[in-house]
Amino acid sequence: TTSSLDFGTVVESSDFVFPITLTNITNETVTVSRFAISCDCGRVEPKTVTLSPNTQISVELHLNLRNRKPEERLSFLRSFGVPFVCHNERGEAVFSSKISGKISSPIIVDTQDWSVGSFSELHTENRLKSFLVKTAPGVESWRVKSCSMGWGGSKEDNGQSLSLSAPQKLEINTHTSKVVLETTLKGKSEPILSEYTFKVTITPDVKFDQSVVQLGLVDYGKEYPITIRLTSLSNKSIKSVMFPSPPSGITCKYDLESRTVIGTIKINQKSTQKVEVPVLITLDGIDQPLKQPF
Which of 68, 97, 153, 277 could form a cystine bridge with 72, CB 3.0-4.6 A? Predict the structure, then answer.
């Protein structure tokens, strides 16, 4: 048996912790080796438990209550419900129920991808985006309480939008920031904190029309041509392309007029090969060469 699995009405959160008490009402020791939740929104800690006869133990169910169905995108109050099953070491279900409750959202950021955008590594200015914000009835005010990882955030358009900006110095990768919004309800002194995770993607400025050259089934000892066209996302002129220390069997040169890497690869091993060719690219107006392999 277990305690009630209805958590009532709670504020939307990315890590809502719901304590659950399990009771072994049998005269035998029961080991729960796996907790199954029919969504990717939750996990149980600890992952396994053993209960002696007629004893209790508490576990914590961690739920991400941010996920919404398309029809719930702008709902301030929505229902939650997922099956919850405890399995023993033999894979048998020793308990099954349903986790249910209501999720309250005093403030809604109207977005589906939670992304500020994708930018070239050379596009350091204006890495920002505005998101439409809606507040539930009874909300007096809201503000941006904090942004992690050096991001900036502000309330715009009299509270109808949230503006976020990513830092200028970011490496090529996808970066995230936890943004905390503080909402004050009318007649309530204690504010409500809502945490969101936003992302920004920084990409190489020079794009190959194919970053992976797939040769397929080839003959040992035979040379095969390589042709790769280059494009600068910032529309800067490509001054030079160098290939320092190319792998054995690979020769490359860059044709400035056609913006194309032309070369050959010779297969020297009778096996599946995957090699990386280092490339240094110099753009007009950029002192430091860009490193980008293919």
Answer: 68
Q: Return all residues near 229 (Cβ < 8 A) that are at least 6 apart.
A: 208, 209, 258, 259, 260, 261
DSSP 224-277: EEEEEEEEETT---EEEEE-SSPPTTEEEEEETTTTEEEEEEE--SSS------
pTM here is 0.71
Q: Which two tokens stand for residue 132?
A: 């439409």
pLDDT at 239 over 70: yes
Q: What span, in angstroms and rounded, lies between the C-alpha atoms of 196 and 109?
A: 9
Among residues 149, 109, 146, 145, the alpha carbon closest in space to that of 129 is found at 109
- Quick one: 126 exposed, middle or buried, by C-beta within 10 A (0-12, 13-18, 19+)? exposed
Q: What is the pLDDT of residues 193-226, one digit of tens each?
A: 888 899 999 998 888 876 666 666 667 777 878 8
